[in-house]
Specification:
The chain is α+β, with helices and mostly antiparallel strands. It has 13 helices and 14 strands. Strands 1, 2, 3, 4, 5, 6, 7, 8, 9, 10, 11, 12, 13 and 14 form a 14-stranded mixed beta sheet that branches. The termini are far apart.
Length: about 400
């Protein structure tokens, strides 16, 4: 029936988004979310060949598509962890050696359901009027079965990532099929006030202290020249953008996957004006870039690149945050998802934390039980939450 591998009468695995027939997308009606559009998924596939991409589809008894999940098999290098997960990593090494489950020469292979390049719920879609708890369990079991039935690789762990609190009454059903849950650093989210017609309106909404701080940052960045990146200019800029991206990614305490900056070309070609890239010049030197995607009523900040030698003097990163806000206001959007790094500075521009939960399961039952004890110790990174806005007058 379909160009894919079949596990049962209602579960199908696809190794490329191109293999999924057009009628399936019509049945699902999920493509108003850009993260679930074939054009977006194909851009990731084409340019990140170090990752094995696959897709799971669930069908009902009438062979109509009712659920979709994106999965990625990534090589995770334990030495890359530089934060509170180090204790878990040490445990994995120790248990791995004792039970002959892993080798220090080999990466830890994680099958991830979700988008490894973006924070948030972008891995699973379930059609309305379905038993979502049951479908989530079916998808989770299908993810584990992927190793036995489809993958030629030995998978060490299975992960479903980034569920918001409102979804936990559904996703906590994963506990019944062996998954452990833990909280990670939150997505920092800014809800735009409907009264903000311009960036100046946003500034007026800030308390004096933070308005002064914003104006000071904007003044320090006046020597920066910004430029909207086009498909034509990307090819020339990519080498320098790659170096700037590595400056930022090398500072990260945890990287699940390395993003190939050349993906930007495909994203711009496929998503047009919905994908935004802006570069920052200091004289004739490229010192930064930001990227983001307009998805429904939200601007989602993606990767940035920064020359840290000039970041403080010219407030490069702060300028980027204010530019994201300005872009969202000009586009009449409702929210900005800033992602889960640099939480304190993002809260200083008005973003608030949105809790995220990850579900993780080791492939073997005994290590999985022990893993749960360590995951219970993981806590999101603490930061000082700043409330920069004036208390809004309540209008009668």
């Amino acid at each position: 029936m379909l160009s894919c591998k079949k596990k049962s009468s209602n579960i199908y695995y696809f190794s490329s988004v191109r293999e999924i027939p057009e009628n399936v997308w019509k049945e699902l009606q999920c493509t108003n979310n850009l993260y679930l559009q074939p054009a977006y998924l194909e851009a990731l596939e084409q340019n990140n060949q170090q990752i094995q991409f696959s897709y799971i589809l669930l069908f009902d008894e009438k062979q109509k598509a009712i659920a979709f999940a994106t999965i990625k098999l990534v090589d995770f290098y334990l030495d890359s962890v530089q934060n509170d997960l180090q204790s878990v990593v040490e445990w994995i090494r120790c248990i791995g050696r004792k039970l002959h489950l892993s080798s220090s020469q080999k990466p830890f292979k994680i099958l991830t359901c979700g988008n490894i390049f973006v924070s948030g719920e972008h891995g699973i879609f379930i059609k309305p009027n379905q038993d979502k708890k049951e479908i989530v369990k079916q998808l989770a079991e299908a993810i584990v079965a992927f190793e036995k039935d489809i993958s030629k690789e030995t998978i060490d762990a299975f992960m479903l990532k980034d569920f918001v609190n409102e979804s936990l009454f559904i996703t906590d059903a994963l506990h019944s099929v062996g998954y452990n849950s833990f909280n990670v650093d939150p997505n920092m989210k800014l809800t735009l006030d409907s009264d903000w017609g311009t960036f100046d309106d946003y500034l007026k909404a800030l308390k004096t202290k933070y308005r002064v701080k914003a104006k000071k940052a904007l003044e320090k960045s006046t020597d920066l020249r910004t430029e909207d990146v086009t498909i034509e200019s990307l090819k020339q800029l990519l080498p320098e953008m790659t170096l700037l991206y590595k400056n930022v990614s090398n500072k990260a305490s945890f990287n699940l996957g390395y993003f190939n900056v050349e993906t930007y070309t495909s994203l711009k070609e496929n998503l047009k004006d919905d994908y935004i890239i802006k570069v920052y010049w200091l004289g004739d030197k490229l010192v930064g870039f930001l990227s983001g995607m307009i998805n429904q009523n939200s601007l989602d900040a993606h990767f940035v690149g920064i020359d840290y030698t000039v970041n403080r003097a010219y407030a490069v990163y702060q300028r980027m945050l204010y530019d994201y806000i300005s872009l969202a206001i000009d586009s009449n959007l409702k929210t900005i998802n800033f992602g889960r790094t640099a939480s304190e500075i993002k809260s200083s521009v008005g973003a608030v934390p949105q809790d995220l939960t990850i579900y993780l399961r080791h492939r073997k039952s005994i290590p999985n039980r022990i893993l749960s004890l360590f995951l219970n110790r993981i806590q999101p990174t603490e930061f000082r939450l700043i409330k920069p806005f004036k208390i809004k007058d309540i209008k009668n």
